[in-house]
Amino acid sequence: MARKKNSSADVTGPRIRAAALRLFARHGYAAVSMRQIATEVGVQAGTLYLYTPDKQSLLFDLMQQHMQDLLAELAILPPATTPLADLENFTRFHIRFHQARSDAVFISYMELRNLEPANFDRIEALRRDYEAHLVTILARGKAAHVFELPDTKLATFAVIAMLTGVNTWFREGGRLSLDAVEEIYWQMVRKAVGA
Amino acid sequence: MARKKNSSADVTGPRIRAAALRLFARHGYAAVSMRQIATEVGVQAGTLYLYTPDKQSLLFDLMQQHMQDLLAELAILPPATTPLADLENFTRFHIRFHQARSDAVFISYMELRNLEPANFDRIEALRRDYEAHLVTILARGKAAHVFELPDTKLATFAVIAMLTGVNTWFREGGRLSLDAVEEIYWQMVRKAVGA
DNA sequence: GTCTATATCAGGATAGAC
DNA sequence: GTCTATCCTGATATAGAC
């Protein structure tokens, strides 16, 4: 079926989401007005409502998309043959993926409290899926006696917190390349789990 | 000099700050109105302005107080005789202190972007003072060859992120006591720094 | 020291012209 | 598909009564 020639709907929608992502990350969901988002995109405030039913949906869609992307990318990671290699893959993947989408990461961790309960539950479920992946890796390594872990669940929390923390300070063009950071963190993770 | 008999100024001020702390932590600075704070305290909105010049000062004061408390408590930690003992003290202190003030911690990490630039700089300086303390411990241990660290600064970030992460999941009365959590995290920190 | 009342402004969202 | 205009609500902050 032919598309309308001058339709900009396909470009305006994504631009609205991109602007909202940027602004929510910089200033926080509650502090950003629909007018600001519209100005950033170069349309009037009313126009936004052609693309989203309301502000809350805009936030939820951004977070859901981020978590789904995260899980999708994780799912296509080449499988490793040992728990140690699995953990290394996960570590490097987590740092790289999160660094490439720092705005979305920021929002997904900071704006949970601005989600309506039903939306919150759905995002939390996705986050738990992601955690579960690391839990599995650590549990396998522990069972195989290659990891020494007092508590698998806490090790999962610790590793994820540690890796996500990279986003708070890493800046492209700084003292260390992302490759170097990956390597250093991997060494710390490896040691932390007793491998 | 005699105080006024029925003055409740000394109690209203702290109650306002306590309410603001709670509400900012739950819903975020931008999402909380002065009316909500006033309602929580049981006064009218206008009354708040007898105790704070504006909403921004209220946020800044809470964050500054938190950071100053943190540094003050850190300063009176009994000094240890080895870098390893120093690191253990720091680890346990960080977990305990942050757990006891989870609202203030939450705000101090999440609401930085809602500070006016001058206020932001002052809070950041305090945060760097705190980090510097851990940097020193790690650098000493590295110099004494009791820690094996590819990068002292990154290890500092990693340890603080890991420890602060406890606040995102720990709940009193859960599976593990705070003592147990402290112990498990200490083991992970110890290994991560190669000790 | 606190309240009531209000000035002033900006927010989310909608209706209808083009 | 976008804009203009607007409704309604609720925000911060202040003035002045009690």
From TrEMBL, chains A, B:
**Annotated HTH tetR-type domain residues:** 10-70
Q: Which Gene3D superfamilies would you find in this protein's record?
A: Tetracycline Repressor, domain 2
Q: Which residues bind DNA?
A: 33-52
Q: List keywords of the entry alphabetically.
A: DNA-binding
Name the Gene Ontology molecular function terms of this record.
Answer: DNA-binding transcription factor activity; transcription cis-regulatory region binding
Record bears the keyword DNA-binding: yes
Q: What InterPro entries is this protein classified in?
A: Homeodomain-like_sf, HTH-type_TetR-like_transc_reg, HTH_TetR, KstR2_TetR_C, Tet_transcr_reg_TetR-rel_C_sf
Instruction: Check the record and name the PANTHER family matching this protein.
Output: HTH-TYPE TRANSCRIPTIONAL REGULATOR RUTR, TRANSCRIPTIONAL REPRESSOR MCE3R
Q: What is the name attached to this protein's record?
A: TetR family transcriptional regulator
